[in-house]
Amino acid sequence: MDKRNETIVKEILYWKQNRLLPEQYCDFLLALYSEGMEKPERLPSKTTLPYLLYTYVSVILLLLPLSFLVIYFTELGIILQTGLLSTFVGIAFILYRSTSYQFQHFTQTSLVILLVLVMVFAVYITGYWMDNNLWVYLMAGIHSIIWLVIGRLKQYTYLKILGLLGIIVIGLTTVF
């Protein structure tokens, strides 16, 4: 089979896989252009996810544990901790924005991690500067309300549920 026919066969397989043409038409065209050779049923799969997505997933999933590591398990000064947490939030925001354009199926995960990092950062700063835990609860409550609003605007049910659970947990911890 020459290069031209091989390209046509790959295109027909693409049409068949994505149901752009009825299966019978694709089978007929495959038999015609494959010149009686054994026809493959599917396109040869390279990789389902590009390496760039693997990098994004790895980085964004590491940001949350790294932020807790910086806060609770290091003896860095407040300025260095705040700088690192700000950098983590910035990286999460950049990854969220870039995934919203390139990998829509990963956007929701990066949004949740971004929101959690922002809340962790805000609660940490509030806890450091305010001696009263009421301010920390208030900051976490504000973030839970923000999650509810974002969930409602973007129609993400899980964000609405997380925001509501956050408000309930904060309410229960302030009462007891």
The gist of it:
By secondary structure, the chain is mainly alpha-helical. Helix content is 78%, strand content 0%.
Can you describe what's shown?
With about 180 residues, the protein is mainly alpha-helical. It is built from seven helices and no strands. It has helices at about 5-15, 25-35, 50-70, 80-100, 105-130, 135-155, 155-175. Helix 1 (about 5-15) packs antiparallel against helix 2 (about 25-35) and helix 6 (about 135-155) packs antiparallel against helix 7.
Highlighted features:
mainly alpha, 7 helices, 176 residues
* Element-level helix/strand string: HHHHHHH
Strand content: under 5%
Major beta sheet, specifics? none
Radius of gyration: 25 Å
Structural class: mainly alpha
What is the overall silhouette? Answer: elongated
Residue runs with pLDDT of under 50 for 5 or more positions: none
Kindly state the percentage of residues in helix: over 70%
Topology, number of strands: 0
